[in-house]
Design goal:
Helix content is 11%, strand content 28%. By secondary structure, it is an alpha+beta fold. It has a domain of 73 residues: Leucine-rich repeat, LRR (right-handed beta-alpha superhelix) (Alpha-Beta Horseshoe). The strands form four sheets. A three-stranded mixed β-sheet has the order 6-7-9, with no helix packed on it. The longest helix has 13 residues. The radius of gyration is 22 Å and the shape is globular. InterPro entries: DNA_repair-toleration, LRR_dom_sf, LRR_N_plant-typ.
Length: 116
């Protein structure tokens, strides 16, 4: 997957001294840094995790800041937008309730069967 380039401008400094104006040019740097999608999706997923009362066998241990949320267990994201499109946590013996998930605006598949 090719990540979009992020253009970053460094400071443009213009100094005016007693001897007259001295200008420094604007530098343009190109970084191939991945953009990680919508933080709203991450917060919605963390809210789901918070509502769970029992998470056996560390099934959601990947749901932390060490990985991007699109790499979390049971989460599928669109490649282009990096938005959550599927949440598949069936047969995990999870116990709890499901909070409102309206912030997962790209979600098209939700599979939570065989949980409580």
């Amino acid at each position: 997957m090719q990540h979009p380039s992020i253009l970053c401008f460094t400071e443009a400094l213009n100094f005016i001294s007693a001897d007259g104006p001295e200008s420094h040019s604007v530098q343009l740097h190109k970084f191939n840094t991945p953009t990680f999608g919508n933080e709203t999706d991450k917060l919605a997923l963390l809210t789901i995790k918070h509502y769970l009362l029992d998470v056996p066998n560390g099934v959601l241990s990947s749901w932390n800041d060490s990985l991007h949320f699109c790499q979390w267990e049971g989460v599928t994201c669109s490649h282009r937008l990096q938005r959550v499109t599927a949440l598949r946590l069936e047969d995990q013996r999870l116990v709890g309730s499901l909070p409102p998930i309206g912030n997962l605006t790209f979600l098209i598949e939700l599979e939570l069967s065989n949980n409580n």
